[in-house]
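Minutes, structural biology subgroup

Action item carried over from last meeting: produce the structure token record for Preprotein translocase, YajC subunit (Paenibacillus algicola). EB confirmed the sequence was re-checked against the source entry. Recorded below for completeness.
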Amino acid sequence: MFQLASGETAQGGLIGLILPFVLMFVIFYFLLIRPQQKKQKTRNAMLSALKKGDKVVTIGGLHGTIVEITDDIVVLKVNDVTKLTFDRSSISHSVSQASEA
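Output recorded by EB:
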């Protein structure tokens, strides 16, 4: 089977060694890499769709309403008096109006 005079057996051994690594990469791609890319894409879309007046929750769990927003800074109104400044990337998710009712 491992005769070097026969090119086919040496080639078959090489394919037998590489094939498991290719299969592992394909499995990792569909189980880990691709879902993570989709999740990141939806998060970036949510962050870019934020606007003044949206109710959001930060990564730390703070609930507030967006008062001011720039490319990388968000100012949240927490209560009638308190306004806090956060990075735009620290927003975890937007709270929809339907879930509040």
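Discussion: The longest strand covers residues 63-69.
Next step: EB to file the record with the rest of the batch.
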